[in-house]
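Site-specific DNA-methyltransferase
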Amino acid sequence: MSNHDDVHETPSTTPNLKTELARQLQELVPEAIADGKVDIVKLKELLGDDAGSDTERFGLFWPGKKAALRAAQEPTTATLRPDRGNSKDWDTTQNVFIEGDNLEVLKVLQKHYHGKIKMIYIDPPYNTGKDFVYPDNYKEGLETYLEWTRQVNEKGKKVSTNSESEGRYHSNWLNMMYPRLRLAHDLLSNEGVIFISIDDHEYDNLKKLCDIVFGEVNYLNTFVWVSNLKGRQISASGAAGTKEYILCYAHRGDEVDEFRASSAHLKALMPTVYKGFNYTAQSDDRGRYVLKNELHNTNSAFNEVTRPNLVFDIYYNPMTAEVKTAPVSDEHIYGEFVKIAPKRNNNGINRYHAFRWSARKVESESYNLAFIESSSGWKVYTKVRDVDSAVVKDIVMDISTNEGSADIEKLGLDPKWFDYPKPVNLVNLLVEAATDEDSIVLDFFAGSGTTAHAVMKCNAEDAGARRFILVQLPEPLAEGHEARSAGHSSISDVAVARIHAAATSIEKQRAGRIDEDGLADHGVRVYKLSDTNFSKWRVLSDVELDALEQHFLDLRDSSVLNASADALLAEVLLKLGYSLTEKVAAEEIDGLPIQSVGNGLLLAYLDERTKPTLEQLRAVVDVGPGKFIILEDAFHGDDELKTNLAQLCKSKGIELWTA
């Protein structure tokens, strides 16, 4: 048999995060790897005093924590199947809605979206003693979800509860949240932030959990949302509750800019929260700005011990405006530069104050710094470009819970379809404060779809091109639910209906306004979580013997289970690291039906039933794609044909992939 070293195999599962972590450790500390395994003793030895004690350590521990972590690390064969019928503007939109268990979906998203999400907002179950609808069998993952959805379809019932009488009431909730937050962390960009709505029931546990997942140093804020000034009696004693919380963490806190908002309707909505600048605007070659804070942090709690990456020397050349950084030193390294050292505190502890920016940011964004010489020496100030905006405060008022239902009613939908929808203005504020005009926003507890509505509204206000990805479990609506009369059977159904209604409403509001680039995106691609379309991949590592025998019998007939070309291509693209919104076109080349991705950068032949000829494959290769994907079964066991195709692709510099 020929050697196919030039043929790449599409991975059958999502990345193995445990293996990936070990690989990163090998790059960072190769001496801690022995015989292909991590030497924990050696690693602790290398860390020295930075390694924690086995016997005395602070942390949050609960029953099931290790199993929950394994749930996040376990690879999945799951895929996402296109649902064109419920989509809008499939060929042009960059927005995505996914129906499925968010634990599995977050794994599926890792390949392409790792480190690409600028903002995550989630409104998870508040753990008030009601039903949980998230499958919690950590061993089986996708299989549990598929079994659960079959139960829902057949009997319309939920599968797990979490009443306050449960012995593991808090543990159950933490076990549900922990793996999902771990995967969410990996999706955030360096400048990315996550906002999590929560009430008093789990606030303290959630705060500790986020400290574990995101790191205490990356805690930014706890927003207090005064959602009900009338108050609600939470228990039989004590004061009436008026508030909820929104916890905010960053992937890397030193990379996150100040939260600001500039929309007139948001500032007018909350005049007690927002306060504009009283400073005089100036200009440079990048436009208008005002000088805000000094770069050094006046809080002595931020120092070389608590924020070592924010303590360094800054060097500034007054003649050329060049900026450099260097580790703190008594030496003056750059002769023609002014040295600006971090300030010492005056509280009796001999430590440096940290700067508010990292050294990398100081060098890469020095144009947003102003270096001013004063009688006491050189000072560094930050420039704020958006002179008409205001700093977002961590208390949000004048947005009531009732506004969420009012938002639904304005769309022409029945507010009774939705349970406690979050107000659009609340999420709109967070989106505006934490994103850029082309950011990706993720919400994996989509609920009523408020986040999608807020993103589209924000884009309409500033002509932005933000994109959203929403994930929602197909939680069944109760019998007699108002939305069932409109043909909806699950929360994901009504969320999609709300997204379509919000898009229509915004389009009407924009009617007559000039859309300069004509690219306003009010569409959405809908996908549904499913098991792999390839039977050769549908097998668990601990599968029973009789099931394994049946698996091999299945392989005799086909490696593909009657899946559409759309579904096959979507899965292959996902597992090769492409996005969920790639531009795809159907073409015919020398009689072969070909899927073209990204204007021909990738071509795919996904018909296992018809064996192509070498001449037909030569015609495909002559088109000159960067990658060519073909189903393994399309060769019909002809190893010579596969070898010849591999040589053709190699001669043209084309990557050949099989699935």
